[in-house]
Amino acid sequence: MAEDFDVKMESKVYYPDPSIKETVRMGDYEAVYNEFIQDPQAYWEKVANELKWMQKWDKVMEWDHPYARWFVNSKLNITQNCLDRHVHNGKKNKVAIIWVGDGGEERVFTYRQLYREVMRCANGLKSMGVKKGDAVCIYMPLVPEQIILTLACARIGAIHSIVFAGFGTQALNSRIKDSNAKIVVTADATIRRGKRVELKAIVEEAVVNAPSVEKIVVLRRMTPPMELYSEMEVDYHEMLSDIPECGPEVMDAEDPLFILYTSGTTGPAKGIVHTCGGYMVGAYYSTRNVFDLRDNDVFWCTADPGWITGHSYIIYGPLLNGGTVLITESTPDYPDAGVWWSIIDEFDVTIFYTAPTAIRMFMRMGADWPNKYDLGSLRLLGSVGEPLNPEAFEWYYHVIGKERCPIVDTWWQTETGMHMITTMAGQPMKPGFIGKSLPGVVADVVDKNGVPVPAGTGGFLVIKEPWPSMMRTVHNNDERYRQYWTTIGKYYTAGDLAVKDDDGYIMILGRSDDVIIVAGHNIGSAEVESALVSNAAVAEAAVIGKPHPLKGEILKAFVILRVGYTPSEKLKSELIYHVRMSLGPIAMPSEIDFVDSLPKTRSGKIMRRVLRAKELGMDPGDVSTLED
Ligand code: PRX
What pTM does this model have? Predict the structure, then answer.
């Protein structure tokens, strides 16, 4: 693991127009940060007081390392804050969701309409026997029903576990089993680039050997409607109740709101557990201040609710703030590479939040595409998920933002629930650097003993103090949760390598573990390796990340075949297909090498670091533990 190495850091600085600093909510970053650091609990209490609670807390926070309880003994329902509050406060007819389909179709929901749909769905779930504390797995395309279902679960206190619809059978099966889901909700299909991509067929396979599942609810979008065969299958519209009212379940602040799986360093994906009260405060606060979300904004986050970005910045954050969100099932290059810019133009999108991979892809397609459209409505741009390299920053800033829009490069994780580090709008921006801690967060770069490293020296990114939307545990694996807080001193270890400059701006250098970030998605080496080994031809496999100009990293697999199998191009394709079917397209290796042996420690652990160094022609570092 790399540490204490010097990093060359020169960066341009962009000074935003002073008017931005004066108009955004947190223009005076230093003053707000000082207010926070002087009394962190009072700071968060003030934020929480902006929301509606059924019963307020006895204490803002209780910290028994590594366990935190926020807003102790308070009661709430997050959907009251996402829906009722706006419906009853003059925003009934304000647009909550604008949906654009793959073929340009449109659906619009006002807050009133969304409220009614969520209530009908919540009553429908109840009629199927779903109760507070039950888990519901949502495996859906990016359609409004995905959001409606999520909120319906929250309304009745069911724990939602959204699984990105790009995952394959094995990944879905393990998530259903780990969460003990009672109901799985899916759709017949999703539409990608004009083509139908089956989803229900994947669910049918994934529920085999998942005894907790009682029913599969299917949203049938296609004509003619797909037949529902088994006793277990229920039509989504038939499940909906006619009654558009459903009282909010009383939730303790520390009751779980959702489980979301993220790839781990070893073994299967980790079920990150977030709770009702703290998560609500974090999602509300960060959306409001990092994006400076206002009443007349049209906010477009291009993620899918299957990722934490979609949970916090498509669903909860914007709706908690009474905002208007745009979502689309469309891909960025279909029917042509101008489709996203045309959406910004057509709907007057004001805030656009996307991933560096998408920005790099657009860069490659050229400025002519965005230049065909009027992007004058944009006022703020965001980036998330992987390092925004300076070239991509420059393109985003000049070509899309026309040098007017601040860029917030937001660093955070599934585990953190909300943005943790960024350059707040109005502050000087440094391409390549994410920036500083949000007020409310204490981030630092330290050595392996927890001692802060000097500027220019690489180290580990840690968060030193608890924050409201921190994960509370790893589902079924609390020991894994404890590791986050016990690896480097008593700090939360993010698993990223980072460096600070003289002004305290942080730059992310990459992961310090075996998580690989492909096109902004976390992929665990171990998960892909076990998918490969589940193929009859494979004896052993090791997977590494390899730098890629567009996707940040791609997956390369080294495979030892079982006796009786011969390396061939056909076998490579078969193995790639096998991973695609079990884990999904995002986890497919781009390259496979057949090898006779793998570098291992004497205790038999594969040293992926050595493979990676060899692949990239770099020094493998300390190899004293290498077996041979
Ligand atoms: O390595 C960091 C990278 O994504 C990891 C978290 O992944 P995930 O839990 O899937 O959440 C992604 C969306 C929040 C981090 O440990 N990462 C996230 N944002 C950035 C980033 N790397 C560099 N810059 C970012 N802005």
Answer: 0.93
